[in-house]
Amino acid sequence: MADDLCRRFELSRASLYRLFEADGGLARYIQEQRLDRALRLLVSPSSRGNRLIDLALDLQFSSDSSFVRAFRRHFGITPGEVRELSETWLRETGAVPGPDDLLQLIARR
Q1: Residue 38: burial class (beta carbons within 10 Å; 0-12, 13-18, 19+)
Q2: Which pTM was predicted?
Q3: How many whole angstroms separate alpha carbon 94 and alpha carbon 43?
Q4: Pick from 34, 44, 108, 29: which is nearest to 82 by CA?
């Protein structure tokens, strides 16, 4: 991935990594982007039936357990709990929650 980015933006590898130092490094930035995408997918009605292992592998995690651990570290809640909160929100309000809605709800817990 880093090599592709270097070629695409005509940067040296050192320059690319230097750009992401403030964000904790390139690998951390990429993982955070994957986790943010996972949150959006977990609240999406079109993804309700998808298994966590499939989501984890699609987002390039090595296993569902490594995905769940990373997700919990990042958001303070498991993917399964996000699904439950999302379904409860939908039942109670009749509206599909957005990721920001759930993050606010999580912050209040």
Answers
A1: buried
A2: 0.83
A3: 14
A4: 44
Model confidence at 56, pLDDT cuts 50, 70, 90, reads very high
| Residues counted in the chain | 109
2 contacts 16 by C-beta, under 8 angstroms: yes
Residue whose C-alpha is closest to residue 97's, from 89, 105, 88: 89
Please report, as a single letter, which amino acid is at residue 45: P
Please report, for residues 1, 7, 28, 68, 85, the alpha-carbon distance to residue 81 in angstroms, rounded to integers and kept in the order given: 31, 40, 23, 11, 6
